[in-house]
Amino acid sequence: MSPNTCWLCKICRDKENGISSKLSLEEVLQWSQSFEKLITSKYGPMIYKTYLKTEHSDENIEFWLACEAYKKITSQRKRISMARKLFTSYIEPQAPNEINIDSPARKAIIRNIQEPTQSCFDEAQRIIYTHMERDSYPRFLESKFYQKLKHSLQTNGNNSMIN
């Protein structure tokens, strides 16, 4: 493997990311079909997050993924705790990972945070999804980052990145 793909090897072999099977050319090519395919694929969110770090906007995917996890919480106690974490990390002004949402969405969350529901962050999540889909996703597809990944898999005989 060429030195240009070492960054990818490190990402793909990172045990913390839970990657145990193979990143395939087929999966990587599907990412260019739609943002939905990228964000719902096995490795897409992790690779996309790595790209977003280069744009200093990885808080968007982190928030979106956290919202997906939040919606699955069934315990009201856990929901309240997670809602507060989401609020202090992403929503409140000057939050460490503050996301770019409009004032009405932010105010609605502030109103609902005391008794958060499963859908408390839906509007903010939709806004962030749209930002990513319209702004950073097209740049991702055109980036050297994605192009090198595709090229690496296309030139690798067994169409997989991890052996």
UniProtKB/TrEMBL annotation:
SMART domains linked: RGS (SM00315)
Originating organism: Ibidorhyncha struthersii
Pfam families for the chain: RGS
Span of domain RGS: 34-150
InterPro entries associated with the record: RGS, RGS_sf, RGS_subdomain_2
Coiled coil: none
Protein name (database record): RGS13 protein
